[in-house]
Design a protein that fits this description.
alpha/beta; seven-stranded mixed β-sheet; 427 residues; five-stranded antiparallel β-sheet; 12 helices; globular
Length: 427
């Protein structure tokens, strides 16, 4: 109870403290489920590290071309083993999730191929990669790739329509696991499995690609195990565990990873070159910590869905299955959205004295407010929140290196909102 006492001493409203205690105890059994998943993923990761005979000398690195960097090769072996793929490309010079995804698309698709998203409009940053937004120079469409997407139906994949969209030229199908900036929950592994089975039953040669950003280690299985041919994600999200300085990963069929590696470096060089810049240790230590970091973030996300009890729409809802670490809350009030983001910033370990303001971010039509004060810039496995300043004033909340940190931030948010008179918390 010392945690509650210190909050009360800091002037937190006793009703907020009481509310938080009740919410937390109502979530205990779900927390247990998450812990089982985290334990299971920890076993997978530990085994992969042992089977690869990871050694302390693997953290050494080379210079120049980076030939025969044993650490780089171990990292990729370990990723293959965890994601159950034939091969993997995991590099610090993949600059972001968008870069990892873009590498997959550009290395596999050719002019004349048809590329189909079956999970509606993809994540914002991919629209310029595909060429449906902005100046399309150098985009997939510019290179002659034909693109189409199947709209979601009530937030679900429209399985029945897939057959109508697939053509003889359909080379690749994309599935986005996580919410992104949309208003649907993440697709679960079992929903993704059904969709992959449907695609493969129409044409087994179609390459299924899963954008796995934010999904890693939130379920027992990962997409390759249920039929995906290739997956990609970012190391400053879940699998970097908050420690990786930068990087992206791509896991999948060997022939496809070869193509991707030829695109990242050059044909003939592929995976054989590329410096690790000494961050093999952070990449692997972060990976090792990732299941428990993801666990903390997931508990924080579920906990933040307590806003449902206060009358706000939450996606996913408290009862929904979860397959990523994102929580969105519709505030329908610009003031509440601002308070939420500001309190997240004030509760951060770094840059806590900054006050976030809505601003005109390049590429967005409305002003956006963003809060993040992490150890790694832009890392969204660390506590962060953001939202566009437009109806219905939805905040997207994610990350948190520890559950305690998420909880402290949420207490402060609830307290500030209650004191502003904009929400009611009654016992
Ligand atoms: C974050 C994200 C991306 C892009 O990652 P960046 O690292 O921000 O470029 C792509 N897809 C989804 C679903 C994401 O959540």
């Amino acid at each position: 109870m010392e945690f509650e006492n210190i909050l009360l001493q800091e002037g937190v409203d006793p009703q907020v403290v009481e509310f938080v205690r009740e919410m937390e105890s109502s979530m205990e059994s779900e927390f247990k489920n998450y812990e089982d998943i985290a334990d299971y993923c920890q076993v997978k990761i530990l085994r992969a590290m042992q089977e690869s005979k990871l050694a302390s000398t693997d953290f050494n690195w080379t210079t120049g071309y980076g030939y025969g960097d044993p650490g780089r090769e171990k990292v990729e072996e370990i990723y293959s083993s965890i994601f159950k793929s034939e091969d993997a490309l995991v590099r610090p010079n993949i600059v972001s999730g968008t870069h990892a995804i873009s590498l997959v698309l550009f290395s596999i698709l050719r002019g004349g191929d048809h590329f189909l998203s079956i999970t509606g409009t993809p994540y914002d940053t991919l629209l310029k990669v595909i060429g449906t937004k902005g100046n399309s120079d150098g985009s997939l469409i510019d290179l002659g790739v034909e693109y189409s997407e199947i709209p979601l139906v009530n937030g679900s994949i429209d399985l029945k329509s897939i057959v109508d969209y697939i053509k003889p030229s359909t080379k690749m199908v994309e599935i986005q696991r996580s919410t992104g900036y949309s208003d649907r929950r993440a697709f679960t592994i079992s929903e993704i499995k059904e969709a992959i089975e449907e695609v493969k039953s129409i044409n087994k040669d179609i390459i299924v690609f899963v954008d796995n950003c934010y999904g890693e280690f939130t379920e027992y299985l990962e997409p390759v195990e249920i039929g995906a041919d290739i997956v990609a994600g970012s190391l400053i999200k879940n699998p970097g565990g908050g420690l990786a300085y930068s990087g992206g990963y791509i896991c999948g069929r060997e022939d496809l990873i070869n193509k991707v590696a030829s695109r990242l470096t050059a044909p003939g060089i592929g995976k054989d070159c590329g410096l690790t810049f000494g961050i093999t240790r952070q990449i692997l230590q972060g990976l090792f910590l990732s299941p428990s970091t993801v666990l903390g973030a997931r508990k924080g996300a579920l906990f933040s869905a307590c806003f449902e009890k206060l009358g706000f729409k939450c996606i996913p809802s408290v009862e929904d299955p979860r397959s990523d670490i994102i929580q969105s809350i519709e505030f329908k009030d610009p003031e509440l959205l601002k308070i939420f983001c500001r309190e997240v910033q004030f509760a951060s370990p770094v840059d806590s004295y900054f006050t976030p303001e809505p601003w005109d971010m390049p590429g967005y039509t409305d002003k956006v407010i963003m809060a993040a004060g992490g150890f790694i810039e832009g890392s969204s496995i660390e506590l962060s929140a953001d939202g566009p300043m437009r109806e219905p004033y939805t905040v997207y909340f994610q990350g948190g290196l520890t559950y305690s940190h998420c909880k402290i931030a949420l207490v402060k948010i609830l307290d500030k909102m209650k004191k502003s008179g904009l929400i009611k918390i009654t016992p």
